[in-house]
Amino acid sequence: MIGTSVLRQTHVLMLQDDHFQNLECNHSFKEQEFISVLKNCNSIAEIKQIHAQVIKLDLIWNSLYANNLVVTCALSDWGSMDYACSIFQQIDDPDSYVFNSLIRGHVKNMNPEDALYVFDEMLERGVVPDNFTFPILLKACTNLRAIKEGNQIHALIFKLGLDHDVYIQNSLINMYGKCKEIQHSYAVFHNMEERTLSSWSALISSHSGLGMFSDCLDLFRGMNEDGCRKTDESLLVSVISACTHLGFLDLGRSLHAYLLRNFSKLNVAVETSLVDLYVKCGSIEKGLSLFDRMNVKNQLSYSVMISGFGLYGGFHEAHKLFVEMIELGLQPDHVVYVGLLSSCAHAGSVELGLEFFDRMRLEHGIEPTVQHYGCMVDLLGRAGKVKEAFALIEGMSMEPNDVVWRSLLTSCRLHNELRLGEIAAKRILLLNVGDFTMLSDLYARNGMWDDVAAVRKEIVEMGLSRNLGKCTVEMKRRVYAFVSQDRSHSDSSRIYEMIHQMEWQLRFERYCPDLSQVLFDVDDEEKRQLLSGHSQKLAIAFALLNNSGSRVIRIVRNVRMCGDCHAYTKLVSMIYEKEIVVKDRNVFHRFRDGRCSCRDYW
Predict the structure, then answer these.
(1) Domain residue extents for the chain
(2) Residues 427-450 pLDDT 10s
(3) Number of C-alpha atoms within 13 angstroms, CB side, residue 196?
(4) Is 394 within 8 Å of 363 (Cβ atoms)?
(5) Is 591 helix (H, G, I), strand (E, B) or coil?
(6) How would you classify the pairing of strands 552-557 and 470-475?
(7) Crossing angle for the helix pair 81-88 and 96-108, to the nearest 10 degrees
(8) Side-chain-side CA neighbours of residue 486 (13 Å)
(9) CA distances (Å), 536 to each of 480, 556, 575, in order?
């Protein structure tokens, strides 16, 4: 019997609406009328009115009426899962349709655990799940990252002979990918008799989520070669994200052109991903232009643009966007503040950075994460306040991680703070070759060559390979990589001849190599040779030889730029009238007319 509380509630709501009064006067509630009335409902109050009428006419025991009430309550935007469950409990013999709807409702309302409980009840009652059950059930496992339950459900899919259903297969690809079991995603994908756009999208998205960006692009090419040339916005977001992380601006531009040709209107997710592409690939003006033209902007859109200005040292622009965001009623989250604090760090705005750090906690109630502390350590360390940065670490409310200590070590190397640098190195739990190199450089700057030798010996004994400075430059959709002293390129002789010509030109601008950047105990002539073979200079020479038609050269570095390369590139930009955009590990440098956007602060 239906609970007295529900009966009391629903009878009280039997009312005054003309449509319901007409139904009551007819002393009947035909199925078609019932379905029609349900479709026109706009609130839970109206559902309760219909429920009351169904009870009064003694139709609650009819599965059609009860099931549809449950489905409408569970799946409507204005519905109530509590009310849907209360009706569901009165159904003596629920079928797979109503179980599926209840599972879907729980997933829709961000209660994936409850969805799995309903599925357990479904099996206990002997109701056989069908091909509509599993896609939404696998989505619940995906949201929970419940790989064990996902494997069990996959086994049941095989048992029921539903493993060749394309919708279930797509859901399995997505579930395994989001649970970081990409090999299982591949296995499902390769066993598919028919691959749809959603199949490719699920696999590409899974790789993107795991940071396997080169594989994303390979799959995208394979998709086109397989004859699946149609695409959608969600898939292109993953591919654009891959281009962003790999620095492939030309390919990203092609995707942007494809979107403009094939979609009359782009959603906010796609537009934001395009802004991110241009900003992180060295074209901040294009990114800002797209951002300004967006009709709808969300919190993520502002976060991307604020972080972008942070990469370029554009603190004032980032601050302006932050104020605009607040005025629009969009509340900043921890990601927005990471971007804002980073922009302060790259601009050297210590006082404003400290002010925003306090504002984040006191005004917006955001507790600092280890990322925020990392930004503050970077902010203070870059500005030479290394002792203050160390004090901040010591007072952190959580255990500092390797990233925080590594940031301090970098600042110690930059400002030659040997004692604190040694402390930071000892606190890093997983020392990599870069950490050893920074410590070695600190010793070298202080003429402690025995300690330099000891660190390098430890690197060898631990089997670590030195992280060589590497630069990549994109040319006609191909990426060319150079390491320091590289002579492996087929055009190597021309490249070094170009470097010789560049250095000859630079002498007229009173360029003098900064030999202090070479931390080896060798003579000055050898230091000059080592400096001339730096990877950034090789990349610039190659670009000048092969990219004469373009005014912009874009280079990506894997390590921080040295002072000599910085001074060298400023002069090259002026002499050869080129804009040279260099992204190092932390920040963008835009060299133009002999000046850099970082204002020599990086």
Answers:
(1) 207-283, 470-596
(2) 887 777 778 888 888 888 888 888
(3) 12
(4) no
(5) strand
(6) antiparallel
(7) 160
(8) 25
(9) 12, 9, 17
